[in-house]
Amino acid sequence: MPGQRPPRGGVTARQPNRARTSRGWPLGGDGAVRRGADRTLLDLWSAIGVTGDPLHRCTLAHHLADLYDDPAEALAWDIGALDAADALTEQRLRAHHEGLRLAGFRPSLHLNLADLYRRLGSFDAAAAHITAARRHASGLPEDGYGTLVRTAIGEVAEAITRRDTAERTSAPGARA
C-alpha cells in the first residue's frame, strides 16, 4: 500500500507474489511501459486468484487501480482492494511486517473510492466513503504519508461539496 514501508532486507524467497508485484509496479508509466505493467500485474492477479491471500489481493488490486485512466475501471480494482482488506487480519499483517496495521490501510482505501465515485459524479457514494476515510484517519501514522492522506481527504471532501468531477491535480499520477 502507498506509505507502507517494506520489510527491511527486501523480498525473500517466501514472498514470490511480493517480488512479482514489485517487478510490475514500477512499470506503471505511460505507453508500452504501462501496458507491460498491466500484463505483469494482471498475470499475477490470475495466479493469486480472487480467493488468494488477502494481503496480496489488497496490494495488487490497489496497484492495478492506479494503472487505469478511466475512473470506472480503477473503481472496480479499488473496490477489490477494500474487499480484500476486509478479509485481512492483524495477525496476517504482522506476519508479513510487524509495523503494518489495518488502521493504516482503511483511510487510503476509502479515500480512493471517494475520489473515484466523485469523478464519476456519484456524490452520495463519494460522501459515504469520504466519511469512512475521515472516521479511520486516526489510524494514520504521524508522518509524511499520514499528512498526505489527511490532506487528500480534505481536498476530496471539498470537491464533493462543490460537486466537482475533475481529476485533482494533486492526486498521485494525475494527468491534468
Binned, the helix content reads 55-70%
Strand proportion: under 5%
Element string (H = helix, E = strand) = HHHHHHHH
Number of separate helices: 8
How confident is the prediction overall: mean pLDDT?
80
Shape: globular
Structural class of the helix and strand makeup?
A: mainly alpha
N-to-C terminal Cα separation, in Å?
A: 23 Å
Tell me the Rg in angstroms: 16 Å
Report on the architecture of this protein.
By secondary structure, the chain is mainly α. It is built from eight helices and no strands. It has helices at residues 16-24, 31-48, 54-65, 71-87, 90-96, 102-119, 123-136, 144-162. Helix 2 packs antiparallel against helix 3 and helix 6 (102-119) runs antiparallel to helix 7. The protein is globular.
Topology (SSEs and partners):
Blueprint: H1 16-24, H2 31-48, H3 54-65, H4 71-87, H5 90-96, H6 102-119, H7 123-136, H8 144-162
Helix pairs in contact: 1-2, 2-3, 3-4, 4-6, 6-7, 6-8, 7-8
